[in-house]
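Re: beginner question about structure tokens

> Can someone show what the tokenized structure looks like for a real chain? I only ever see the sequence side.

Sure, here's an example I had lying around. Input first:
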Amino acid sequence: MRRLRASPTLAFAAVMFASALSEAGLPAALRSVTGPVLLQPRPASTDRNVALLPMVASGPAVTPKNASSINAALRREDGRVLNAAAECRASLREQTGRGSQDAWHRSVSIGMAGPRFLAFDLTDNYFCGGAYPNDGQTSLVFDLATGKPVNWLTFFPPGARGRQNTAGDGAPLGLVAWPELTRRAAAQAQPECREALSDAGYSGFSITLDARTAALIATPAEFPHVIQACAEPIHLRTEELRRLRISPVLIGALASARRLQR
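And the corresponding structure tokens:
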């Protein structure tokens, strides 16, 4: 029996149709990339200042099992931030005698929606009392082939190490320690920031992916509050990733994701 091959034109049309479905009904802030992963909007949050993560629909880009696993993780993250926002308001009320619905803000953007990887970038701004407000960025990147958060050490060359940290809302974060990232961060840093990166073993880089520029983005994530402005992201595009011996799987996925952008 002869196996039929799909026409490249039809395959591209299918991806674009899937993208149109994924964007329909999503808030404008989430319509940031085109990709083969179908995303479905959530009902409005109980906290008007906290954006919820969209859900992943199974399809050609992700199996039902893996979509279910990713969605469970996304719901847990939504639960964490809603609890953190409620506790923040309670803390502010206890310290100042007044509560504020505006104590915690979260926005969500999509860095990549397939192939192979799904990247969400979360930005939190919050003031729960104390000397100063806080802000933070958290990246959630999933491997669509496993339905789990990406194990970056699978895609980095030997010499990289993994490390765990915690986001402001209590979410566990997987960070990467790699001397090459430390060297690049120090080279681009302002003079007053270089001391914080003087240790070649600095181990606080969070990783995300950007389909629009086909780039891996690494950001120092363990600076004290007083020098958080030093945390300038490092953008590594596909040619540089090849020179650094990053996995061809990751490079190929980024290149494919870039071609899908309008």
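Each token stands for a local structural state, so reading them left to right follows the chain. Confidence is low (pLDDT under 50) at residues 1-22.
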